[in-house]
Amino acid sequence: MEEKRNTLTGGIKIKEGDEPFNFEFQDGQGKVFQLSDLIGKKKLVVYFYPKDFTPGCTIEAEEFSLDYDQFKKAEIEVIGISPDSHESHIKFREKMKIPYMLASDSQNEISNKYGVFGLKNFMGKEYYGVSRSTFLIDKSGKIVKIYDKVKPKGHSKEVLEFLNSLH
Predict the structure, then answer these.
(1) Is 22 a member of any domain?
(2) Owning domain of residue 134
(3) Span 113-136, mean pLDDT?
């Protein structure tokens, strides 16, 4: 079942079975990585969230942080992406004690490629922003699961269970 994705990328719809788009991100020490550096070595969780320090994003970051040792044991890397600046991510990582990597997508280039940036509606107001979504990538480099409209509470455990069920 192919899910429709709200996208501004000229109709591109990334779906399960596709290869992920490559992007750049930094670890806590400022070392730069590419997603392609990890493909073939680990399973990957790429999760998009709207904004550092907001209630839902804080819950999601906290849960992924608490479960991170279990992800590492299972050879799964977690990467969070939001439109916030690298400086905001540094503060968010420090305050929340986030052990995994965060990517700054201030121009929404990554979120556009993944089809998670688009028109949103909150309390009757329409605006453009990032929809909370998660992409799970297996060791072969294929997207094996996409979660749209993620509810932050319990999502980390849901992701871990799914990835642990893969052989």
Answers:
(1) no
(2) 42-165
(3) 90
